[in-house]
Design brief:
Strand content: 5-15%
CATH superfamily of the largest domain: NagB/RpiA/CoA transferase-like
CATH topology of the largest domain: Rossmann fold
CATH class of the largest domain: Alpha Beta
CATH architecture of the largest domain: 3-Layer(aba) Sandwich
Strand order of the largest sheet: 1-10-7-4-2-3
Distance between the termini: 57 Å
Number of strands: 10
Number of helices: 24
Number of domains: 3
Structural class: alpha/beta
Largest sheet: 6 strands, parallel
């Protein structure tokens, strides 16, 4: 087994036994889930809205080459520049080239999971450039030297007491500072950075093919300032972020806000179509969009899994996943976590190293049920598992176990013949280690199903 898999097993065992962690995450996610129930009431026909969104996004993915070409043409017509990056290393190299010409002391960054995918902060630091996260949640985890915990809420795993203690230690704020006091401190600290920044880096929630525009959705205004004040605005966007038309935003923006945070619409929604024009007095002088593949073409080439590229990163599947809520976001050791991460990460990275994520699921189907673009996530996890078997990514022990189970479970006499105590003994020998030290193995009852059924039938015929 790979080191990544062994680390996952180790970390997940620790988190699963951490009752305080489970209580905190359960509470925080429940707040979102309750808000989402209320937010959904704005839709007269929610299922129709989801069906429309699923159709539009899936069709856009199928026609991805055309829409990306249209976006590039229109964005360049608006005065912007497009760079194509096949992988993370190339994307980072292109960003480094831009920054070497400008030589900024720091860059301001808006919340962006794709920059985590690139491990951009580490690369900037090596260049002697300070990366400053401007989203409050991202800023908190940056100060804690951690990765984001959740796609939408980076610091979901921290209580207000944790944050107060962190800021007391890092910035000498008074102990037990309130959330309002911490937010005011960060606002004052970052405002000057926005004003004087030479470079701002953002992601993109959507790319509009027909207008050559970048759409940003946020609740704090930091993304807007990251692109409005600096002289250079760099956008890093996955190629799957495309929407064919600006007209589609009236559907996708409400779906994103409702399923992400329960809001009718997110506080700030910006459409940026290029750098500052001659008759404009603000905005960046230069705007560059880096279109990133980084394994997305592998997902696109997979017959079934390509559907996952329709994801709008609302985080709804994470909020209902019993596995995610038990083991937490950091355990996945990947930028994209929960059910959607379990589907795409094996394809975007080394399949063998990350395939275990597709087995970290109960297959309960809750993720599929809540997806605003109707991605059949639990089925895609099964397709991933099938691909894993076809690639023969299993050892002798697993092969022998499945061979034995196939013969035992395939014949009624083998299931009925052994004594129940013998079955329990076999269970303890074969599965006690994989079941974990903190969980009790289920036990076979004294009477099997066949016996119970015959007793029931006999009782009815008397």
């Amino acid at each position: 087994m790979s080191e990544i898999y062994n680390k996952f097993k180790h970390d997940s065992a620790i988190k699963a036994a951490d009752k305080e962690h489970r209580s905190r995450i359960g509470y925080n996610i429940d707040q979102y889930n309750r808000a989402v129930v209320v937010g959904k009431q704005q839709f007269a026909n929610l299922e129709l809205a989801k069906q429309r969104a699923a159709y539009i996004k899936h069709k856009a993915i199928n026609d991805l080459e055309k829409h990306l070409s249209d976006f590039e043409t229109n964005f360049q017509h608006n005065g912007g520049k497009v760079i194509w990056a096949t992988d993370a290393r190339q994307a980072v190299t292109e960003i480094e080239k831009i920054l070497q010409n400008i030589r900024p002391a720091y860059v301001v960054k808006s919340k962006s999971m794709i920059s985590e995918e690139l491990e951009l902060n580490e690369s900037l630091t090596k260049l002697g450039i300070e990366p400053i996260e401007t989203d409050l949640g991202e800023y908190i985890v940056q100060q804690a030297d951690e990765k984001p915990y959740h796609i939408v809420t980076p610091a979901m795993h921290k209580s207000k007491e944790d944050v107060a203690e962190l800021f007391h230690r890092k910035f000498q704020l008074k102990p037990h500072s309130t959330p309002a006091e911490i937010a005011a401190f960060v606002r004052e600290k970052l405002r000057d950075r926005f004003y004087n920044a030479k470079v701002g880096i953002t992601g993109a929630n959507f790319l509009l093919a027909d207008t050559g525009s970048v759409c940003l959705t946020e609740n704090e205004g930091n993304s807007m300032m990251s692109m409005a004040f600096p002289d250079v605005h760099i956008v890093v966007a996955g190629i799957e972020r495309i929407l064919p038309s600006i007209q589609h935003l009236e559907l996708f923006w409400p779906l994103l806000s409702t399923f992400g945070t329960g809001q009718k619409v997110t506080v700030y929604n910006s459409i940026v179509s290029g750098p500052r024009q001659e008759d404009e007095i603000d905005g960046p002088r230069e705007m560059i969009v880096i279109l990133l593949d980084n394994g997305r073409s592998k997902v696109l080439a997979a017959k079934h899994q390509r559907r996952a590229l329709s994801c709008i990163k609302c985080g709804a599947c994470l909020n209902v996943c019993p596995v995610y809520k038990t083991i937490g976001g950091h355990t996945y050791n990947a930028p994209y976590t929960g059910p959607i991460g379990a589907v795409i990460m094996p394809w975007m990275r080394n399949f063998k190293d990350y395939m275990h994520l597709s087995y970290a699921s109960t297959l309960c189907g809750a993720c599929t049920e809540v997806c605003p673009v109707n991605i059949n996530l639990h089925e895609l996890l099964l397709y991933n598992r099938n691909a894993d078997v076809e690639q023969k990514n299993y050892g002798f022990g697993e092969s022998a176990l499945m061979f034995g189970l196939r013969h035992v479970l395939g014949k009624r006499k083998w299931m009925d013949t052994p004594d129940y105590s013998l079955k329990n003994k076999a269970m303890s020998v074969l599965f006690s280690k994989s079941w974990g030290k903190t969980r009790k193995l289920p036990e076979f009852s004294e009477r099997n199903f066949k016996q119970l059924w015959e007793e029931r039938i006999e009782g009815k015929t008397r």
